[in-house]
Design a protein that fits this description.
mainly alpha, 12 helices, disordered N terminus
Length: 313
Amino acid sequence: MDYSGQAGPTTTFQDALTYISIIGCVISIVCLVITIITFTYFRHLRGKRPQRILVNLCFSLLLLYTTFVVGIGLTSCPNCCIVVAILLHYFVLTTLFWMLVEAVNMYLKFVLVFYDEVRFFMLKSVLVGWVLPIIPVTIIAVLDYEDTYSNDEYCFMKPGYPLYFGLLVISAIVLVINFAIYVQIIRRLTCRRRVTKIKTDKDKMNELAVRVQNAIAIMMLLGLTWIFGFFAIDSSEAVRDLFQLLFCVCNSLQGFFIFLLFCVRRKDVRNSWAYSCCSIGEKPGIFMTTTSRQRYATEKTTVSGNSVNQSKA
């Protein structure tokens, strides 16, 4: 994306980034549809707050990817292009704000642990995730929608103050907050005292693998790969190309990574689909009462014990 307003003819590398982005978005669209169906079809998977937030984030990403793939190149229809640019602006903001909601929820669960329950948390989350982004989009559209959203090269915001303050500044603030929360969460998960002593190298490797997977999963939910886009601004050509490539690959495939980490990786999700499609394995309700609740209780005890030890210290 051009931030200076002095874009010239596209290069072969930029064309390649466009194709990579479109292919990645199509893959993510399919994966997000499966993820949304999974967490809405199986009642026992959608009952808790984290799953509801995840579904909303997936919806926002799905709308963003679909709008991008279908409309980013509709420059031949000026009115259509303006509509697409406005929708892309809105869905980028909704995705960022839902990632912020995810960060706040993780902060409450893993860092604070003991806190007064937030009343109407999901209602407030919906207002932040879906309603709050309307404000900057509406302000910019009312002030001068033609000059901001009309673009001859691609259907997105033109470089200028509306883009800088209506999107980039907001994105930077959200990502800084999410990164700060991410550091605290990872620190809490990696530095907490173990409930049981690890005796074998295999156990150590298994725990390390789980922690790495958890770190990647949290990073994807908080959208920290979006930071690559900021590293590409005003950098040398080689550095800019590197971060543009990382930005395109990681963010166009964010839906794919969410599918892998929260559907394929989770045993309760695999068990639910296996039982529903082929009557293989345990019934989902039984599985939740035996495996998932034990895992949740163990994690809660471990984190809580660490918090108590820190408070005593």
